[in-house]
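Morning - glutamic acid inputs below, output right after.
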Amino acid sequence: MCIFALQFTTAIIKTTNIMEILSNRILNMAESETLAMTAKARELKAQGKDVISLSIGEPDFNTPEAVKEAAKRAIDDNFTHYPPVPGYPDLREAVCTKFRRDNGLEFKPEQIVVSTGAKQSIYQLVQCLVNPGDEVIIPTPFWVSYKEIVRVAEGKCVYVKTSIENDFKVTAEQLEAAITPRTKLIMFSSPSNPTGMLYSRDELRAIADVVMRHENLFVMADEIYEHINFVGKHESIAQFADVKERVITVNGVAKGFAMTGWRIGFIAAPTAIAKACNKLQGQVTSATCSIAQKATVQAMLMDPATSQDIINMRETFRQRRDMVYQLLREIPGLKVRLPQGAFYFFPDVSAYYGKSFNDKIIENSTDMAFYLLNEANVATVMGSAFGDDDCIRLSYATSEELLREALRRIKEALANLK
Ligand code: GLU
């Protein structure tokens, strides 16, 4: 009986157009290309291909020992029940301590909401702020998921194009020109994913001045790469007292503490916005994993100025960055900027567009990423995913040996394009 019922259901699903089953919301949403390229690389590796993945932005280090010990203690101490929706009180206190120590920012625990990764933090924020038709300014290139997160909320993405010549940074004048009475939010990351560029204090001040000229305009400052900064002090736009009530700072432990799998992100926001995100989270995940939260308390105690774990990771990234920069500069035709933070290069490869290999013409960044994957066995991410089709993204969060080999293959593959 059951088997017949199952066969019947399967038959209905097979014969019904899938477009009629799924919501428009999900049908209209693009897949995350960073994750898709990574999955593709994994698939090819599983088939026995010697693929080097420079696609995902994930530190190749292990989580610091002290953090792992804290997680083990949390299990032994039976932190295995539902935590409070926005996070354990000691974690929210520890996050406030982090903002005071690292950024000179004062927040109260009720302004902090801890979520399952910075991606969920951003998703919830946009759901809480953006009404259908509201405009969200996203300087390009941007991190892949901003666009789809805004689109799911039925917001309108307003892209402001930056250029490699301007270090991929948006100017105050460009922002001012893009603002309309419907503009609700500006979203950007610094250090930037995908470009690795940082906004200086003066540049952030100029952006804050623009924001202050418009009512009900908010800023989402994504600072997840804060600790991977090679040029000096991290600057937060929330440091300016006048604009602080309009800024939602997003951060987490994935990148700076090599804790991608623990899935912990957080916001520091005006209280009303934090409360709204808390309400939404209560209906979505209830809270974030109790063990990961306790591990994060330990991570928050680590002072990035003195923690050997954080310093070693940053230094290793800096050495790799310098090495990859030299190797990229040896490849004819590429335009490359030296990143100041994060662990990505975003070279302009458009000089190769119009060239071909085995009669297949490389017309755009998707063709280029697939050409490099199929012919050079190197996984990258197409720049179009980040809103800039002239470029591709390379993550250098992998060993020097693999990076050298990947860059050798890329150079050879590009030389084969005629
Ligand atoms: N944020 C990382 C990246 O850009 C991780 C993957 C993702 O969530 O997009 O590669």
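Note: The chain has two domains: 26-56+308-415, 66-300.

O.
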